[in-house]
Write a sequence for this structure.
């Protein structure tokens, strides 16, 4: 049914169409969408105008993007010009170190960030750190030779290094002064201000190793119970000897305890046997009438005397229980051994005997034990640490002119502390930047270290990155750094270096080509609208269009009546874009094809098909028919065959007729007869 003509109207909008517009419309009118041509024009115009609007928006967007890239290119060109000018203001050394941009290498830039900006950014960073080092020199000198600047750096590094060492000593002195003051406060109270300096120092050693005054009191109590004197020259010997005697004493007490345990057990056995004898005697008396002797000892006794006799008061000895005093003494000896068994005594012995033997000794330990006997249970040794005791011991050994026996330990500590304060004052005089009234020495050390780090970095940058051939040249680091920084900031603020020059030019060209293409597409749509309007104008408008339809509806009616007998229908109509039929002899209006029988609808379809093919001047001279008469009766089938034969012989149509009905095939062969213009082919069902 010539479906390939259905899109002809749409092709009016195609560029370069050379169709006869009137003829194209006429051919389209007899396709399977006869009435849609009237609405197609308005739809196509609406679509065309919408596409034109979209293309105009796209052109505007592309032009804006192209303009943005052009502005970026202009900024890059301006930045090159500005950077070239700025380079002329740099010192000679800096111009030799950095890459200077010029208009000659602008077109060679293919990277997103030109090489000269990388060079400028690198040296701007280096100059920034060198300038920080210059600021530590406390000078207003604007420029130096590289060698002069490096010499100034080395001098400052030496000065700051010395200050850091002095401040470190001051910091240690302040820590020591604070520790000594804490110790002095502890020893400047009773009873330590009454003991000898050496004994008080020994007490500090014991306290720092975890020994308590109550431990000394327990040891002193047990020492007083020993039968033999303790002969020792050192603390280590004393600990060994005392421990041995305590072990011996404990063994004796334990033996006594065991003996008492044995006596107590025998006494319990006697009492048990006596009770058993008494019970048996009572049983014997209860079953005996007369008795002349004792059943246990065979002495002459009567039954009455046996019953009435009393137990002698001294029959059993006094019970031998373990005295509480023995138990307490054993526990005290065990506690004393536990104290002496502490690992800290080995360190205590070494500290007193070897490390600080010139300050204290075993005699001071003995004095502390004697002191502990008379001390109250609430008193304690002064609280100390191993570090504070080590500090005090070293300072006592180092001190000149101090005789421990001349004063209490607190007085000696005060003298050492005063000497340290004099040393601190001397050190502060060598570091003018340190004001102890306003600053903590640790903060000053940190400040010195930070300055030292900064100036060492600056010195390293000079020696590592500036060739020695430039060391005699003058350089203004501060001014050059400002020029580099300002130029880079101007470029970054303008976003000029977003893309390379080559990339920007390529993008601008791409935008121009795309704008040209979209503009051409827009023009094509505008031309298409004009062609569409002209085409419909040339066909005579809607009136001519309707007349054209009516002419061919008449042809459809004629063929339909030829294929549909008896004649039940007068006319085939097209009303409101719908095919309808008027029934012969009926006063009613036309009716839709849905009320027709299947055979009648088949006949109408064949009539429309034949009209479409035969009425088109440029219709293809081919008809493809597959079971076209399946719903026609024999009379109408013969009529259809007559039309096909005429179309083939008179209208030069090539007809391919396919059917699986042998009767239909034989009927068609009979109608055709013997002719070279027709050919029958039997096809195997497998094909």
């Amino acid at each position: 049914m010539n479906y390939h003509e259905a899109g002809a109207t749409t092709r009016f909008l195609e560029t370069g169409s050379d169709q006869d517009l009137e003829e194209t419309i006429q051919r389209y009118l007899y396709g399977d969408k006869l009435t849609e041509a009237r609405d197609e024009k308005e739809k196509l115009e609406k679509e065309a105008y919408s596409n034109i609007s979209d293309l105009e928006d796209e052109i505007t967007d592309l032009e804006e993007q192209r303009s943005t890239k052009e502005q970026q290119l202009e900024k890059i060109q301006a930045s090159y010009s500005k950077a070239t000018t700025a380079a002329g203001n740099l010192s000679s050394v800096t111009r030799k170190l950095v890459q200077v941009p010029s208009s000659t290498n602008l077109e060679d830039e293919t990277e997103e960030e030109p090489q000269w900006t990388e060079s400028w950014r690198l040296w701007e960073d280096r100059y920034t750190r060198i300038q920080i080092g210059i600021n530590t020199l406390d000078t207003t000198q604007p420029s130096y030779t590289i060698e002069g600047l490096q010499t100034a750096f080395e001098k400052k590094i030496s000065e700051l290094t010395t200050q850091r060492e002095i401040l470190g000593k001051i910091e240690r002195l302040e820590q020591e002064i604070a520790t000594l003051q804490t110790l002095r406060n502890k020893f400047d109270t009773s009873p330590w201000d009454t003991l000898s300096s050496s004994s008080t120092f020994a007490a500090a050693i014991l306290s720092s190793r975890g020994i308590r005054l109550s431990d000394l009191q327990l040891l002193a109590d047990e020492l007083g119970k020993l039968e033999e004197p303790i002969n020792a020259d050192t603390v280590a010997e004393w600990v060994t000897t005392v421990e041995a005697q305590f072990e011996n004493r404990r063994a004796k007490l334990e033996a006594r305890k065991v003996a008492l345990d044995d006596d107590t057990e025998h006494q319990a056995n006697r009492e048990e046997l006596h009770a058993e004898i008494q019970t048996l005697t009572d049983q014997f008396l209860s079953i005996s009438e007369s008795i002349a002797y004792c059943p246990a000892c065979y002495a002459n006794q009567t039954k009455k005397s046996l019953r009435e006799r009393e137990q002698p008061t001294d029959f059993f000895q006094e019970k031998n229980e373990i005295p509480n005093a023995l138990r307490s003494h054993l526990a005290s000896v065990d506690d004393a051994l536990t104290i002496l068994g502490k690992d800290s005594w080995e360190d205590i012995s070494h500290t007193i005997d070897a490390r600080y033997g010139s300050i204290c000794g075993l005699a001071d330990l003995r004095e502390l034990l004697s002191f502990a006997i008379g001390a109250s249970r609430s008193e304690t040794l002064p609280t100390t640490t191993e570090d504070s005791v080590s500090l005090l011991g070293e300072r006592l050994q180092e001190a000149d002119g101090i005789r421990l026996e001349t004063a209490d330990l607190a007085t000696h500590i005060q003298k050492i502390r005063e000497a340290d304060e004099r040393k601190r004052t001397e050190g502060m005089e060598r570091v003018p930047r340190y004001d102890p009234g306003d600053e903590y020495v640790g903060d000053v050390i940190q400040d010195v270290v930070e300055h030292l780090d900064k100036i060492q970095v600056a010195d390293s940058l000079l020696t590592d990155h500036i060739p020695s051939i430039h060391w005699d040249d003058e350089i203004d680091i501060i001014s050059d750094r400002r020029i580099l920084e300002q130029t880079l900031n101007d470029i970054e603020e303008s976003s000029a270096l977003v893309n390379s020059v080559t990339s920007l030019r390529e993008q601008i060209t791409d935008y121009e080509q795309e704008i040209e293409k979209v503009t051409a597409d827009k023009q094509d749509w505008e031309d298409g609208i004009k062609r569409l309007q002209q085409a419909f104008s040339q066909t005579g408008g809607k009136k001519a269009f309707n007349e054209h339809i009516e002419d061919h509806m008449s042809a459809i009616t004629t063929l339909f009546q030829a294929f549909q007998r008896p004649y039940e229908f007068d006319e085939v109509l097209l009303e409101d874009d719908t095919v309808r039929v008027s029934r012969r002899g009926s006063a009613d209006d036309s009716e839709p094809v849905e009320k027709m029988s299947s055979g009648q609808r088949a006949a109408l379809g064949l009539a429309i098909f034949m009209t479409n093919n035969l009425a088109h001047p440029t219709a293809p001279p081919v008809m493809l028919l597959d079971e076209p008469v399946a719903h026609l009766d024999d009379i109408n089938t013969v009529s259809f065959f007559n039309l096909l034969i005429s179309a083939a012989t008179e209208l030069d149509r090539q007809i391919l007729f396919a059917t699986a009905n042998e009767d239909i095939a034989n009927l068609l062969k009979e109608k055709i007869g013997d002719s070279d213009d027709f050919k029958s082919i039997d096809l195997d069902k497998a094909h």
Notes: Residues 73 and 505 are 8 Å apart (CA to CA). The beta strands are 144-145, 474-475, 569-575, 578-583, 591-592, 622-626, 654-658. Residues 164-193+409-466 form one domain.
